[in-house]
Here is the input.
Amino acid sequence: MPPNIPERFSDYSCADYFDSDTFTRGVWHEPSQLWVIVPADKVAERRELEFLVVGRPGCDGIEFGYRKGLDGLWVYYPIGREFRLLAPNVAELVVGWFGGSITV
Here is the structure.
């Protein structure tokens, strides 16, 4: 386990988030007035889903995060109880989100 990942999150492939000062401080999206990527103190584990939430698009309870035992950044749609792979890592999610190539 990389040293920056809190032990309680060691089952998630989330080193790209926890090894980055940029992402652990959070990424603010000015047009939507929202933390697309939340600061590290706001990261939450949804144990019932085996999902580590690190962000959100701001609608319908949708969340961005890591799935236990799987690589990449995922989106969770609570209405349909569905997961979809969004990006290989948090940096590509942010670039795609800000650039408009990634949507939910």
User: Anything to note?
Assistant: The chain has one domain: 7-99.
